[in-house]
Each structure stands twice: as structure tokens, then as C-alpha cells.
């Protein structure tokens, strides 16, 4: 079953290189829009197109986890670029981030929303929706799958124990970022949301007009 908006063959899309992530988080955040987050499950693939992200700038960014300095919890953010940093929040949600910048410099991008592309039925099952109450032809049901950082992690089975520190640029990894040559026509920039520190910084990037963005 395929998405009605951004159909793609995620299995043939190119895995992003390490150098893609080895840049300023603001540059990486913009460039990530339209790319695919891919979860490999044996021969099956779950994939969602990135439509909303937030950049976090490191130790000088009060809203970033790295502002507290280098710790066991945020070690991935200080390591090489292109690795998954997964944290648990509010006692119920996991959030997926990618490390940026060279080894020893903290920086990251939070993935806030995806548009489902492949493996929609498996995503629905992972989110706890039965066939009786989930209709993939309806936009409102598709939005329940991966609109929001916690939802997308549930849909792709992303947890800290399973995925923190995973190499997103490795062909051997079961969690990757791929490029199928999709290009966003227009990108909107807003302040980050759901934070109390440095909330005024315009570091949230979205594909303008996309129905899977968490908040307009």
C-alpha cells in the first residue's frame, strides 16, 4: 500500500553519506526535508518522507540537550555526524535526532514529522490501529501515523535501547536516511515549538503546505 502524495521506491533510494551530516545543523535541517527515513525489517521496508525538522545548535543553544555539556545521555550528539540520537520524553515518547558537525562538536536535527510512503499497514499495526478503525485512504488516519516526533518513532519502532547510536549512513544499518531525488517546492521557517528556552529562534523547517506537518 502506497502513500497518496509522495510515492517512492525507498528500497532503491540512495543512502545519505556521512559528509551530508557533517555540516551546520541549520544546513542539514533544510537539506533533510524530502529525504526518507527508512526502517528495514528483514525483506520489508517502512519509510516516511521528512516534512518537518528542528535544528539544535550545540552547547551554546539553551534548548539543546548538549547545552548541559557532554554526558552519557547525549554522547551521540558529540560524536561523529550521521548517527541516531534517541531520547525519551514525558515518560512516554521517543524522539529521533541525527548528529551533525565533526566529531567533538555537538549539534543535531530533530525529526518532527514524516509523510508515510511505504509499509503503511505495518506502521498502523505498530501504532496500535486495527483494520476496523484505520482507513489508509483517509488523510486524517494517515496523519495519525507519523505526524509528530513521538508518533513517527512508534510507527517505525524506534526506541533508545534499539536505535540510539545507530549509524544512519551505513548500508548495514536497519535505520537509514535515503534520497530518492524528491525536492521540496517551498520551505517555510518558524520558531521551534514545544520548548521554553530559546523558543524565539527560527530553527524549525517544514515543507510548506504539506498535510503531515505537525502544526501550521
Strand content: 25-35%
Radius of gyration: 16 Å
Terminal Cα span: 27 Å
Which consecutive residue ranges, at least 5 long each, have pLDDT under 50? 1-5
Largest β sheet strand count, sense and barrel closure: 9 strands, antiparallel
Enumerate how many helices there are, as a single number. 7
CATH level-four homologous superfamily name = Methylpurine-DNA glycosylase (MPG)
Provide a concise account of the structure shown.
By secondary structure, this protein is α+β, with helices and mostly antiparallel strands. The protein has helices spanning 18-21, 25-32, 75-78, 120-126, 139-146, 149-156, 160-163, and strands at residues 14-15, 36-41, 44-56, 84-89, 93-99, 108-118, 175-179, 187-190, 204-207.
